[in-house]
């Protein structure tokens, strides 16, 4: 329950971080798009104003008089709406006294508004934004003021200040609509991105959570497995302390039990270490070319003696030649685990048979025994960590429940397969196939 709350909290934290991350990302994207859009509109207008300024200075329109109202200097702009705009291009001429001298060209309504403009405090030859307020509306221009030289051939301009204005109400309206559309679009995509991120994070967290659960289970199982032999050792030692005058020979039973448990602890810690290392990918198969026949003969040689000492038969067949690309240490560990198990779970008088065959590039290792076999319902699970078919039987055999999971890991490292099936009339057969 606590774990679930913790996972949930972690997921919410991740989700909020994603929410903020995407919001920042989309805000930056929006600002960049807005900035470029605004820049493209203004640069278009400003270029037109500058072109017109040059025309006046060069007096291209010398014979036409000042430019008329509603002549638009800008290039093509899809967002401009000429028809509904009261003001577009206005050329206002200020005489030397600063009074508008082309009033007749501006029209009554325009003049009323534009008459508010003065040349005072205005920068020369620089495009500025000018906002004018009337009692019932606001209108915005971009404008450039120039001082026309006295020798300009157009007497209307010569020696005067000329203010070229471009009405940008329509552009601002378009910009405004664009911003609205941009915000709606970004919010829409932000919501979609968040949903996708939420599902992706949930699914990507699954393996992490699973591995975290496995890790926790592994540690608690490991602690449990370590506690049992340690408790036995402690009990035996405490018992021995109550007999300080006894000789070892008098207390053979507790001494040998302690020794057994120490041996068990040694195997257990070695296996736990192997699995912990395999989990963190510290150990990986280091494959090299190995002469197979002498290698397997060396691995199997001690088992004849062990089998004899346990009143069991050991039969081995090594039908391999040439070399194979394997991790010799890991394959030795694999074969030892399988034979150890076969010996452990086969009663006295039974037989353990090992057959190692190389067929082209396939190496087959078969370990069979005449023991109790593995029940069908356990066949798939015995390769799991700490899984044992019969706990009471296993405690007697000193099993750790880790051997086969290490065997499976070794086979996986060699990209091979391992499986178990029944031996007839009794026992089990473990088969490993590895591609050399
Ligand atoms: P253990 O150290 O307990 O043997 P393993 O991982 O090697 O752990 O094996 C898991 C379980 O599979 C064993 O506890 C045992 O129940 C079963 N098992 C493994 N090998 C054999 C076998 N040859 N015959 C019968 N049961 C086996």
In words, what does this structure look like?
The protein is of the alpha+beta class and 436 residues long. Among the domains are: 109 residues, Beta-Lactamase (2-Layer Sandwich); 152 residues, Heat Shock Protein 90. It contains 10 helices and 11 strands. The strands form 3 sheets. Strands 6-8-9-11-10 form a 5-stranded mixed beta sheet, covered by helices on one side. It has a 4-stranded antiparallel beta sheet with strand order 1-4-3-2. The protein has a two-stranded antiparallel ribbon with strand order 5-7. Helix 7 runs antiparallel to helix 10. The longest helix has 73 residues. Adenosine-5'-diphosphate binds next to helix 7 and helix 10. Adenosine-5'-diphosphate (ADP) binds next to helix 7 and helix 10.
């Amino acid at each position: 329950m606590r774990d679930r709350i913790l996972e949930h909290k972690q997921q919410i934290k991740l989700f909020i971080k994603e929410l903020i991350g995407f919001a920042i990302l989309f805000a930056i994207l929006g600002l960049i798009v807005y900035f470029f859009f605004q820049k493209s509109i203004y640069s278009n207008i400003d270029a037109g104003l500058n072109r017109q300024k040059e025309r006046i200075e060069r007096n291209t329109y010398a014979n036409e008089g000042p430019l008329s109202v509603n002549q638009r200097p800008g290039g093509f702009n899809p967002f401009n709406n000429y028809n509904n705009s009261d003001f577009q291009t206005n050329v206002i001429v200020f005489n030397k006294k600063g009074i508008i001298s082309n009033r007749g060209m501006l029209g009554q309504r325009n003049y009323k508004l534009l008459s508010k403009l003065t040349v005072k405090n205005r920068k020369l030859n620089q495009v500025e934004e000018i906002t004018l307020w009337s009692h019932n509306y606001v209108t915005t221009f971009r404008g450039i003021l120039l001082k026309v030289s006295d020798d300009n051939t157009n007497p209307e301009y010569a020696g005067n200040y000329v203010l070229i204005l471009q009405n940008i109400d329509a552009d601002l309206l378009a910009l405004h609509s664009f911003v609205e559309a941009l915000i709606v679009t970004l919010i829409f995509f932000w919501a979609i991105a968040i949903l996708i991120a939420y599902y992706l994070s949930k699914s990507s967290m699954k393996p992490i959570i699973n591995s975290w659960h496995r890790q926790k289970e592994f540690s608690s199982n490991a602690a449990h497995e370590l506690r049992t032999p340690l408790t036995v050792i402690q009990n035996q030692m405490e018992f021995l302390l109550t007999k300080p005058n006894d000789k070892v020979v008098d207390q053979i039973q507790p001494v040998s039990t302690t020794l057994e448990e120490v041996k068990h602890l040694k195997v257990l810690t070695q296996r736990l270490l192997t699995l912990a290392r395999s989990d963190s990918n510290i150990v990986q198969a280091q494959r090299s070319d190995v002469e197979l026949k002498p290698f397997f003969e060396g691995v199997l040689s001690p088992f004849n003696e062990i089998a004899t000492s346990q009143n069991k038969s050991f039969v081995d067949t090594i039908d391999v030649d040439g070399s194979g690309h394997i991790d010799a240490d890991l394959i030795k560990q694999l074969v030892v685990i399988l034979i150890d198990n076969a010996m452990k779970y086969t009663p006295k008088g039974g037989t353990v048979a090992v057959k190692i065959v190389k067929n082209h590039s396939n190496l087959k290792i078969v370990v069979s025994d005449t023991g109790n076999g593995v029940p069908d319902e356990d066949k798939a699970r015995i390769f799991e960590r700490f899984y044992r078919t019969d706990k009471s039987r296993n405690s007697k055999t000193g099993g750790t429940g880790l051997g086969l999971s290490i065997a499976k890991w070794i086979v996986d490292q060699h990209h091979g397969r391992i499986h178990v099936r029944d031996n007839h009339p009794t026992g089990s057969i473990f088969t490993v196939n590895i591609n050399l």
